[in-house]
């Protein structure tokens, strides 16, 4: 298992938050894993969040059930957004959020460059491997992120 792969929930997760979800794993190490749901749109847009009301209406996605108070992002513009962690070429996780917002506001980046998430999915060490072994998740080939 490694960062940069996609997993899809199986019927074992029906009737849970994860029913029919596809996740992109952005971090994987000895402490556990972090991922974002990539196929659940959030019902509001970026500019509908109070502090970003002057920004364009970028789509938001439900990233997962953990830490719903924060925004997270992945992007493919490391030459414009410093501090991102490479996940899988050309995708980077996080970075300078203020710069990302400025770029969104002045149209320096588009929806084809960045994905915004509310919340994330997380597992402690070995949890995700156990869930895959029990058949809750299946590993997928490429999924279009942007």
Structural description of this entry:
The protein is mainly beta and 146 residues long. The protein has a single domain, classed as 3-Layer(aba) Sandwich (VC0467-like). 11% of the residues lie in helices and 40% in strands. The protein has helices at 97-105, 127-133; strands spanning 6-9, 22-29, 32-37, 41-45, 59-62, 66-75, 85-88, 91-93, 114-124, 137-140. A hairpin with a 2-residue loop joins strand 2 (22-29) and strand 3. The two termini are 23 Å apart. One of its GO terms (cellular component) is cytosol. Belongs to the UPF0301 (AlgH) family.
CATH class: Alpha Beta
Mean pLDDT: 96
What's the number of domains? 1
Q: What value does the Rg take, in angstroms? A: 15 Å
Task: Report low-confidence residues grouped into runs of 5 or more.
Answer: none
Percentage of helical residues? 10-25%
Distance, first to last CA: 23 Å
The CATH superfamily turns out to be: VC0467-like
How many β-strands, per DSSP?
10
- What is the CATH fold-level name? VC0467-like
CATH architecture: 3-Layer(aba) Sandwich
Short description:
This protein has 146 residues and is mainly beta.
Structural topology:
Layout: E1 6-9, E2 22-29, E3 32-37, E4 41-45, E5 59-62, E6 66-75, E7 85-88, E8 91-93, H1 97-105, E9 114-124, H2 127-133, E10 137-140
Parallel strand pairs: 5-9
Antiparallel strand pairs: 1-2, 1-10, 2-3, 3-9, 4-5, 6-8, 6-9, 7-8
């Amino acid at each position: 298992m490694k960062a940069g792969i996609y997993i899809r929930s199986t019927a074992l997760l029906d009737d849970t938050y994860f029913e029919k979800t596809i996740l992109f794993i952005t971090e994987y190490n000895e402490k556990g894993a972090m991922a974002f749901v990539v196929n659940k749109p959030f019902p509001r847009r970026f500019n509908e969040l109070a502090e970003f009301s002057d920004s364009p209406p970028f789509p938001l996605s439900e990233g997962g059930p953990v830490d719903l108070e924060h925004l997270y992002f992945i992007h493919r513009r490391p030459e414009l957004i410093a501090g991102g962690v490479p996940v899988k070429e050309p995708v980077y996780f996080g970075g300078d959020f203020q710069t990302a917002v400025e770029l969104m506001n002045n149209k320096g980046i588009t929806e084809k460059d960045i994905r915004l998430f509310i919340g994330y999915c997380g597992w402690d060490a070995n949890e995700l491997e156990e869930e895959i072994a029990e058949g809750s998740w299946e590993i997928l080939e490429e999924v279009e992120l942007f």
